[in-house]
Specification:
The complex is a heterodimer of chains A (about 625) and B (about 375). Helix content of chain A is about 40%, strand content about 20%. Among the domains of chain A are: about 45 residues, no CATH class; about 120 residues, Beta-lactamase, CATH 3.40.710. With about 625 residues, chain A is an alpha+beta fold. By secondary structure, chain B is mainly alpha-helical. Chain B has one domain. In chain B, strand 1 and strand 2 form a beta hairpin. The chains are: A alpha+beta (about 625), B mainly alpha (about 375). The interface between A and B is large, with 56 and 65 residues.
């Protein structure tokens, strides 16, 4: 029976069945241990997977599912014909989330050293910056080039907590020309944060600080989206499980004409440098609609410095620059209007019946009031003249008499009717009102408790200098443009506006509000016409600024007025500013402007040619500026 | 009437092993390990299984001393020319394939110890000490690689075989006493990272992002599995790499996250059946050597399952050890399958007694022939 067989069965006895297993006591014990151990493991498993499951599953989810913010694109700002004035430039930065750095001190130090080398900044500075930024991500070093992004991407897996973040950064085109209109965005400061956090702003967000970037913030800012992404243990995104796409901000088409803005800036800069001046401003408006076609303040500055994080040194240079480039003179520079105010005095005199368009008053070289002598600009008697002639030759003594007849309170009322002393509701912050003085104002602001004290008493001298745009009267280039526009359009004071069209993210276009009328000047058509005649006469007088019109080939068809305003004292050698206000054409004006030269001594020579240059460009490009373009490109 | 080899086979054992291998491949695939390579290892393991089952295990008995020497030679070779990875010198490169001699040595030690213990008629102190002396250099060589996990398995095989081989309770008790004396000294004997693992096990929250990370992430993965699991390939922790060593030491956590409590219990049950089946193989073995070989394989697999699952769920300290038939790894897969094949070899060669058929017709037939 034990015959060996092939292969498997060589030692097997044939023809039978297996014996029953011989379980020894120890084998049974071993089997018991198996059952016991597996039971213990099963119990622990049940505890983890049933009892602790909810907690541990939540931990797993927070491990792997992260919510990221999807930044919305900020709206692009265009000129009225769709020329982009700002871009959203993608920028890559090395970014570190402090909490995601290794906790092991040695590993952490090694990683910080590596990051410091990559970012090119000292390690101790990095450590300090991280402590400040925590728990927000910290951006390291300069913007990365594409090659650097590729190189860094390869190293990222060995650098937990570090990532490459993509941001859209505002890039302003021609900031020296458009900077004071557009402004810039910057990080929220504490005051901003308090104001804007209820609106859902995040502390690391950027917000418009000045210019229309600030004034149109609510339109330009989009709505951020979010995405729940699954990340692996290295922090790399594996997939997106849910998302809310961001909604871009509205695109805004300004009323500004880019070419006219450039021409205005160029003419102003050229005029300033001709006369060795450094600062000035000019505002060009459409007198029929209130659209601001150009708004220039010089000197400008590079607004892009602010979006890329300006250095303290560069910021200090801007702050301490004696020309104050950060001041937008067009809206916030307050200066005496000087002779450009005489139209208000003339209207007041005419409308109040103190003079008629035909009334002839003398123009002596000086007048005495209350023991004080008030001079005309000319040292000789110019003879008798009507109001139009008085405007054309800008006779000071003529308007002293008119102002004395009208009185300060009435004159102030007319000034306010033309928009003096009123902060216009332009779509940017910082618009200043200027100042219209009268006896009440003087009593309120003299700073002495005894209202009968000399310094609180309004004098006749105050009234008559008020009549030629001095006294305490202050205006801004913007207010001047609105004022001359009202003279041009028949007495309607319009709210100036910078917004032409708004297009939302879905492409729907909303035209800006219809023209807004702030008020109508209380002046009859005849009286207005008399004043306008005076303004026409001024630019048409031979041997005067008419020279500039002839030289530039610009027809003197319109009305203008120069003004050389004294400031900072009285007497003959006080510093002055030069003004020029202008509208054209005379019959149906479609352009009105103010030109301001800070420190200008002779308005007819310094300010007027700038206005003529702007007019020359306007005439040569009239069709293009006025074209109602088809829907501007996206 | 002659039972064919097919009829004499233990069918349940390869069936369970095959199912475990399939689950292992699925888990290895979900853990983004090189599953094609693992498939090659499984194929090699299946070949090793067949070869071991075909090979008469009794021929190993006279080879035992040479096996022992070969094992020592391999372990010494790994010290001299071995490849270092993850802070340990464990691998030998054989023809381009990385071989982990410590894995192989577990099976070789089972055979050697079985041979040694089967020769001892009575459980003498001399024989007992002899077994300890036999194992001591092997354990020392593996521990200093350093490979704490395999050392634990080696010690378990020693104790388990002594127990199954009939060592006296006093002898085993003295061994336990020695262990109790050595344990306080353990922190001084262990490597820095091994000591750290022990501390972490005792207080896992102490350093959640540092050394305790592994343990914590494994527990999170297991817990996230819940009752029914996240589904195959839908585990977050495991597939996204939060679980460390996700295809080897912590493969169980990855499995448990995807298949939940039900899957985990099923896996444990399958291991339980396999282990009881191995004990039964020892019980039906034709001789003492075969019984001890089967018993040794039983202890070897049992120790690995308990230690691996235990450390995955935070019941036992972390020691680098793979889950048999599930974890990724060539040496371990081939060794385990070869060990099971060896047990099959024992079963195939069990004596079959001639017995009268219980059926009447059968009796009649037999008588008629006689």
């Amino acid at each position: 029976m034990s015959e060996p067989l092939w292969g498997f069965g060589r030692l097997v006895q044939l023809g039978g069945t297996a014996p029953r297993p011989r379980w020894s006591a120890r084998m049974v014990a071993a089997a018991g241990v198996v059952v016991l151990m597996i039971g213990v493991l099963a119990l622990k498993l049940a505890q983890l997977q049933v009892y602790d499951s909810t907690t541990l599953a939540a931990l797993a989810r927070s491990n792997t599912v992260h919510r990221t913010v999807l930044e919305a694109d900020r709206g692009i700002i265009y000129d009225r014909h769709g020329v982009a004035l700002v871009q959203n430039t993608p920028v890559w930065n090395l970014q570190v989330v402090p909490a995601d750095l290794p906790t092991d001190a040695r590993l952490r130090a090694a990683e910080l050293a590596a990051l410091a080398t990559l970012a090119g900044q000292p390690e101790d500075r990095l450590e300090a910056a991280l402590a400040v930024a925590d728990p927000l991500p910290l951006r390291l070093g300069a913007d990365l080039s594409e090659a650097q992004v590729l190189a860094f991407n390869e190293r990222l897996p060995s650098l937990p907590g570090a990532s490459i973040a993509l941001h859209a950064v505002r890039t302003y085109l021609e900031p020296l020309t458009f900077g004071h209109v557009i402004g810039y965005v910057g990080p929220l400061d504490d005051a901003d944060l308090q104001r804007l956090q209820p609106l859902g702003y995040q502390p690391d967000e950027l917000v418009g600080k000045v210019g229309v970037e600030a004034g149109l913030e609510s339109m330009l800012r989009g709505t951020d989206g979010w995405a729940d992404v699954v990340v692996d243990a290295r922090g790399q995104i594996v997939k997106t499980i849910a998302m809310q796409p961001p909604v871009a901000g509205h695109a805004v088409y300004l009323t500004i004409d880019a070419s006219l803005q450039r021409a205005t800036a160029h003419a102003l800069a050229a005029g300033l440098s001709r006369d060795g001046k450094t600062a000035g401003a000019s505002v060009v408006v459409d007198p029929q609609s209130g659209d601001v076609l150009a708004l220039v303040s010089l000197p400008g500055y590079d607004t892009n410095l602010f979006t890329h994080g300006i250095s303290q040194a560069a910021y200090n240079r801007l702050l301490t620059n004696p020309d104050r480039p950060l001041l937008n003179r067009a809206i916030a520079g307050q200066y005496a209007p000087g002779s450009t105010f005489k139209m208000v005095t003339a209207i007041a005199g005419l409308q109040e019946g103190k003079i008629t368009p035909q009334t002839m008053l003398g123009c002596p070289s000086y007048l005495s009031y209350g023991g004080w002598v008030y001079h005309n600009w000319a040292g000789y008697d110019l003879g008798y003249m009507n109001v139009a002639k008085a405007l054309a030759v800008s006779c000071d003594t003529f308007f002293y008499q008119v102002a004395a007849m009208v009185g300060d309170v009435t004159l102030a009322r007319y000034a306010r009717a033309f928009g003096f002393g009123q902060a216009k509701n332009l779509e940017m912050p910082g618009v200043q009102p200027g100042l219209v003085p009268d006896r009440i104002w003087k009593q309120l602001t003299c700073g002495v408790s005894d209202l009968n004290a000399d310094s609180c008493r309004w004098t006749l001298g105050d009234t008559i200098t008020f009549g030629i745009g001095q006294s305490a009267l202050l205006t801004t280039p913007l207010n001047q443009a609105v004022y001359v526009a009202a003279l041009a359009n028949g007495g309607v004071v319009l709210e100036p506006t910078l917004v032409h069209l708004v297009r939302d993210a879905s492409g729907r276009v909303t035209p800006a509000q219809q023209r807004r009328v702030l008020g109508t000047v209380p002046a009859s058509a005849d009286n207005l016409q008399a004043v306008r005649e005076g303004m026409r006469e001024e630019i048409n007088r031979p041997y005067n600024m008419n020279y500039w019109f002839r030289a530039a080939g610009v027809p003197a068809d319109g009305g203008g007025k120069t003004g050389t305003a004294q400031w900072g004292g009285s007497g003959l050698n006080t510093p002055t500013h030069a003004w020029f206000v202008f509208f054209a054409p005379f019959a149906q004006p479609d352009i009105a402007m103010s030109v301001f030269v800070e420190g200008g001594e002779l308005s007819e020579v310094e300010a007027a040619p700038i206005g003529v240059d702007i007019m020359q460009f306007n005439l040569n490009n009239h069709g293009a500026i006025r074209a109602t373009s088809p829907l501007p490109p996206a | 009437m002659r039972p064919t080899a097919w009829q004499r086979l233990d069918h349940l054992q390869p069936l369970i092993a095959g199912m475990l291998v399939v689950l292992g491949l699925m888990t290895v695939y979900s853990a983004h390990a090189d599953w094609v390579r693992q498939l090659v290892w499984v194929a090699l393991g299946a070949a090793a299984y067949t070869a071991a089952a075909t090979f008469d295990y009794r021929r190993l008995f006279p080879l035992a001393p040479w096996l022992y020497l070969a094992m020592l030679a391999l372990l010494v070779a790994v010290r001299l020319v071995g490849r270092t990875a993850l802070g340990a010198q464990r691998w030998l490169s054989i023809g381009g394939f990385p071989l982990q001699p410590s894995e192989l040595s577990k099976l070789m030690l089972v055979v050697v110890l079985a041979a040694y213990l089967s020769r001892l008629a009575s459980p003498s102190w001399r024989g007992f000490i002899g077994a300890l002396v036999l194992v001591a250099p092997v354990a020392a060589l593996i521990l200093t690689q350093p490979d704490l996990g395999t050392t634990i398995v080696v010690m378990a095989v020693l104790v388990g075989l002594l127990f199954l081989g009939g060592a006296r309770i006093v002898q085993l008790g003295s061994l336990a006493t020695c262990a109790a004396v050595v344990t306080p000294l353990l922190p001084h004997l262990l490597h820095g990272y091994q000591r750290r693992r022990l501390e972490i096990f005792l207080n896992p929250g102490s350093d959640p992002l540092g050394a305790g990370y592994n343990l914590l992430q494994a527990r999170i993965a297991v817990g996230a599995g819940g009752l029914f699991g996240q589904g195959w390939l839908h585990g977050l922790q495991g597939t996204l790499g939060f679980v460390p060593e996700r295809a080897t030491d912590f493969v169980f956590a990855v499995f448990a996250e995807q298949f939940g409590l039900l899957g985990s219990l099923l896996l444990l049950a399958m291991f339980g059946i396999l282990l009881i089946r191995l004990l039964r193989s020892a019980a039906v073995a034709p001789d003492r050597f075969g019984a001890l070989v089967a018993g040794g394989v039983f202890v070897m697999i049992f120790a690995q399952v308990v230690e691996n699952v235990g450390m995955n769920i935070g019941l036992l300290p972390i020691a680098g050890i793979s889950l048999p038939l599930i974890s990724y790894g060539g040496s371990a897969t081939v060794t385990t399958l070869a060990a099971l094949g060896l047990v099959q070899s024992v079963i195939l060669r069990r004596p079959l007694l001639v017995q009268p058929r219980p059926l009447l017709s059968g009796n009649i037939t037999l008588r008629a022939q006689a």
